[in-house]
Predict the 3D structure of the following.
Amino acid sequence: MTRSRGIRLPRVSWTAGQEATLRARYPHEKSEQIAADLGMPLHKVYRKAARFGLKKTSEYLASPDAQRLRRGDNVGAAYRYPKGHVPANKGVKGVCYEGCKVTQFKPGQKPHTWTPIGTERLSKEGYLQRKMTDTGVTRRDYVAVHHLVWIEAGRDIPQGFALSFKDGDKTNITLDNLELVSRADLMKRNSIHNLHEELKEVLKLKGALNRRITCHERHNRT
């Protein structure tokens, strides 16, 4: 998500000395210790080692430090369930303590957020929507009312097109106030380049500020 929005974390650059240390120590020592000594994230150490073609030596893989890298030690065998193990909860169908049945959902019971078919609501974009089905998936159950008006008039909405309000008023849902426009034209209408220069500059500065804040917060978390 961060990369798709053009926000990148501060770049970590390797010095010649750090690269030389990595080449000398990586085949013989634990990667975690090397990363700590170099002040580098562990994944950066792995990535740089792979780029240099560095591998752990057979002596290191035979040492206790190798841990999971060694093959044939079967180090996790002591922590696995043996074959034929019977789980402690076998045959137990749930656990219900005294008084818990009062708070359980009953067969056919609907959640408190349920609404009947025909209920109308405003979407976060400000479009009036009407509940047409009761599948339990909100985005499928609710349909924009202006779409219903258009379809009930015997018209369709081809792929790549959208319904737009001629006067820009989303509450004026009449057939005469609706028009079919291509997605490309709709994008041009809503482009920032149609705004005044002062407002365009404010929006650009707001976006830059938000990106810097996000980058700073992510950097502090790491």
